[in-house]
């Protein structure tokens, strides 16, 4: 079984950020010992250098292989120029050794804009990575900040990818198994043409809707199922969704 932690939207620097929440989540993840951890953007709130530096300090405490992509907040105030220096490359791949899983990270942010875009060059990179993974029989995961499919309970749709239709078609045509995103602060899953889309909530801020509480997702992937669990800040873990694994 492959075990992955998925957290998003730390919002370091926001008045709604609470350090104890991210430290507690990191302790839980390190205790769980996943095969990899994926962070899908908005590590900072304003993209300021010091915010990204502080976020990098938190991320470095995660004791697992790591894939991190930026969010729209990380690309404010020249944060797009600081992200690679302080944290990680803005897009790339992570192969989980001996587990047959390839995670492909994309940068969907644009400087000083809330809306997102993958763009043609990254789309080509993604398609080539997906085809290579398919040829090697790997389970294929895409990670990016912006959602591709609208998320319920989030009000009027404003910030879906501007090229969502083209990216969605590429994902489906290349038989992507799982897509991880953040941005809306609401945990949710969809399945479209056998591709699972899982959105994580905010792990360490109180930028929340209704009675939601901070959370992160964990994923258990075995030969038969993709099991997505919600881990909330009150210490509870509950099922979010379970789907058949078509990549057997």
TrEMBL record:
InterPro entries: Calcineurin-like_PHP (IPR004843), CNP_phosphodiesterase-III (IPR050884), Metallo-depent_PP-like (IPR029052)
GO terms for MF: hydrolase activity; metal ion binding
Record-linked SUPFAM superfamilies: Metallo-dependent phosphatases
Matches recorded under Pfam families: Metallophos
Alphabetical keyword list: Hydrolase, Iron, Metal-binding
All copies of domain Calcineurin-like phosphoesterase, residue ranges: 4-187
Record-stated family: Belongs to the cyclic nucleotide phosphodiesterase class-III family.
Protein name, UniProt field: Metallophosphoesterase
């Amino acid at each position: 079984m492959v075990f992955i932690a998925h957290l998003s939207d730390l919002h370091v620097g926001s008045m709604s950020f609470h350090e104890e929440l991210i430290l507690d989540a990191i302790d839980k993840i390190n205790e769980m010992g996943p095969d990899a951890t994926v962070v899908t953007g908005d590590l900072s709130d304003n993209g300021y250098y010091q915010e990204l530096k502080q976020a990098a300090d938190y991320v470095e405490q995660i004791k697992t292989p790591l894939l991190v992509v930026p969010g729209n907040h990380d690309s404010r105030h020249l944060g797009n120029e600081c992200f690679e220096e302080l944290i990680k490359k803005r897009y790339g791949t992570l192969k989980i050794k001996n587990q047959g899983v390839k995670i492909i990270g994309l940068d969907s942010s644009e400087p000083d804009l809330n809306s997102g875009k993958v763009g043609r060059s990254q789309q080509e990179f993604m398609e080539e990575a997906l085809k290579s993974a398919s040829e090697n029989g790997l389970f294929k995961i895409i990670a990016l900040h912006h959602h591709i499919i609208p998320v319920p309970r989030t009000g009027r749709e404003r910030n879906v990818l501007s090229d969502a239709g083209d990216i969605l078609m590429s994902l489906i045509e290349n038989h992507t198994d799982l897509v991880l995103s953040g941005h809306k602060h609401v945990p949710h899953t969809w399945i479209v043409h056998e591709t699972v889309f899982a959105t994580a909530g905010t792990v360490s801020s109180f930028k929340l809707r209704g009675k939601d509480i901070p959370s992160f997702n964990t994923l258990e992937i075995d030969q038969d199922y993709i099991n997505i669990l919600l881990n909330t800040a009150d210490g509870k873990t509950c099922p979010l969704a379970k789907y058949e694994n078509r990549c057997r």
